[in-house]
Hints:
By secondary structure, the chain is α/β, with parallel strands linked by helices. The chain has helices at residues 3-10, 23-33, 45-48, 57-68, 87-98, 134-141, 183-191, 204-212, 260-267, 271-289, 299-305, 310-317; strands at 14-17, 36-39, 77-79, 106-113, 116-117, 128-130, 147-150, 153-156, 166-170, 173-180, 195-201, 225-227, 235-236, 238-246, 251-259, 296-298, 322-326. The chain has a domain at 88-271 and 313-336: homospermidine synthase like (Dihydrodipicolinate Reductase, domain 2), CATH 3.30.360.
Amino acid sequence: MKFTQFLKITNTTHVIDISYADTLEMLRCCNESKVIYINTAFENTSVDENIYLEGFTLQERYAIYEKNKNQFKNTTAIICSGMNPGVVQWMAIDLMKKFPKETPKACYIVENDTSFYEDESLADKNTIYTTWSPICFLDEAIYSYPAFMQQHMCLILYKAVYDLQFKVTLGDREFAGCLMPHEEVLTLAALYNMEMGFIYKVNDHTTKLIKDNINNLGDLWNYPMKVLDPVEAPLKGEDLVGVLLVYDDKERYMYNALDNKEIFKEFGTNATYFQVACGIYGGLASVLLDDIPKGIYYVDELLLKTNSNYKEYLSFYMKDFVVGENKKSEGNLLDRIKE
Length: 339
């Protein structure tokens, strides 16, 4: 049965897509059926199957989507509202709106995911552990080049992602993460002329495993992979996501840190998946409860072009956003490289 037939038979009104399905194909089906569509990431089958695009897959998915998105006139869709995308776009826009007379020279999306087994002896030394799809993580971590945006252009560093680490300071919290391509960086940089990038750190076990195989990264695809599931064994740590706005003489930040034990106790999942659910909830509530004109939106466009109450819906479950200021600036990306 074709997906369009399924939509018709079931009288579906809204589709929430958290799969590997091709974004444009799903949009075509929903557009034909006049069904509202929400997803969490760019997916494109033709890009995934093209070995010549290795290293640049996200940029190609984005370019193909941008080229085709205006053909869909019969549906409303919110694209990339889930893990990071959506959540952090709201943070960035909200923080900039608080200080409208000051324009940052850079905006970095930051994430420090320390989630791991409380009993570390449960971990196998040669298994890749992540709090979400290990395959999708590896696509960012070893299958892509480090990338950032400047003057609305995507710039690529000809290095392995884990060859470089970049310093992040959020008040009394500090970490060093890797520069990876990510959806929200592309969409925000289309709207704002400033340097943008995504700095990401995962658990120490997986970080070490990748670094130990830095000269044989292709071998990691054959390693065992596992999602850290608190149903199987208790997890410690947290998933922190946020934004860092950089000025010449200071930095401003906003972040949310979700504790695995607290999230599992109340919602039965890990911190990362809960964060994804909050982004989906924000998008779904917007199209259900707000007067959103027909159209295709990223979350940043939803926030700037409509009367969406995305902020209220997102923060209904995802609470305790920390806002602060660093009294000095650590500079642009290349100034942040950790020796």
